[in-house]
Amino acid sequence: MKTIDQAKEMRNDFMQGNGKANHKDKLTRQIAGVGRKLSHDEITNLYGDSRIVQNIIDIPAEDMTRNWFTLKMEDEQLARNIMSKLADLKAKKAFKEMFSYDRLRGDGFISLGVTQASKFELSEELNIDKLYSVDYLHAFSSMKVNEFLINEDVFDIKYGQLEQLRINRASSHGLQTQTTESSVHISRLFHSQTRRFEDEAQGRSLLEPLYDILTVFDTSVWSVGQILHDFTFKVYKSKDIENLSSQDKKELSMIMDFMFRTEALAMIAEGEDLTKQSTSVSGIKDLLDFVWDLLSSSARMPKTVIKGQESGTIAGAQYDVMNYYTRIVADQESEMKPHLEKLIRMLMVSEKEFGGRIDPESLEWEIQFNPLWNVDAKTDAEIRKIVAETDQIYLLNGIITTDEVRESRFGQFGLTNQMKFSGDEADLKDMADKVYKGYREHNE
Q: Tens digits of per-residue pLDDT, 20-35?
């Protein structure tokens, strides 16, 4: 067979490379959806080893509780007493830790330490009408839970709901450890769980779907470190090098490395050459930007927030940060508010807390979360003016009534310094442009 014929037989299509869609195809061997279930030790190591991971876990939980809330009710003294009791219970810290545990390990809990009028078992449902006092709040994670007991009766109204937990109540005294286990009714706990598959009882850690990108991020940090370590190096050329023994080369290298690092002047013989070489970093910014963008989108947090931008500040047209805070507000309403309302109700009906039992239904009260971010006074006034002009148009055309405007803008408790605002991405971008305009004018 002629050489040209042999070459034709061995020729491969340029699109196939080492073989398209076979065992040699690297793309085919990358299978999506190969999930990794992380153990508690692996989660602890990931969290403890990276400040970026800590930011991803902790910052949203901190933002949810950072500015806390205002309790609106006609009896202002009672409102102050309730807020004082919540401060004594360190409720803000407990809720922050519960949401952090939810993101870190899949489940966050707060144990409700209460005193009741009669003896009770932890496995019994909490009877709110027999409360004497609320004594403490302790946050903990699923590491303390040995078993999740879920209602599996498809004909029960509570089907699929968590009913009981088997909690490890180990205690250590010096070298001695006493291990006990208790069955606890879910009504004696606050439970935060935002990522759970329907066929699983325990929640999923946020770090599991982030594991691949965190690996790439760690690799990029290590690679940049290596590039910086070897960013510049010197090349010494001499015809006498090849005649040196290995030991002589080692000693010469040590001496010249010391001299050329500490002296600005290099003294070499005629015919020898000393040059400085630099590592090329062309394109590395694009690669690092890709990694940051992927990490940011996966964590659903703007890069500036992950990097630790000061909380509550809006610099320039950062509508992505505004969008992030909008999601935090939504989480406050859907995840934290029901727990806070239950806790406040428990305090009201407790016999010892405020001089006797108070019927929560007999009072007008409302939880209003304090704003997570603010703009300067000038920009705030401009936004309020635009909203007021829009409301006037709606009123003149009979679209809404004065009572609806009053309720929407000022709530049931009258005029406040807070403005209720909700909108889509376009509204946020428009507001961000106004913020940026005021920011520039303020700094000019």
A: 666 666 666 666 666 7
Structure tokens at 125: 């449902």
User: The whole model's pTM is what?
Assistant: 0.73
Q: Residue 415: pLDDT above 80? A: no
Angle formed at CA 145 by CA 143 and CA 150, multiple of 5 degrees: 135
Contact present, 246 and 277 (Cβ < 8 Å): no
Residues 6+ apart with CB under 8 A from 433: 317
Q: Which helix (H) or strand (E) holds 326?
A: helix 319-331
User: How far is Cα 208 from Cα 45, in angstroms, rounded to an integer?
Assistant: 13
436 burial type by CB count under 10 A (0-12 exposed, 13-18 middle, 19+ buried):
middle
What is the Cα 139 distance to its own chain's centre? 18
| Residue 178, helix vs strand vs coil | strand
Q: How many CA atoms lie within 13 A of 198 on its CB side?
A: 1
- Residue 405 — pLDDT band, cuts 50, 70, 90? confident
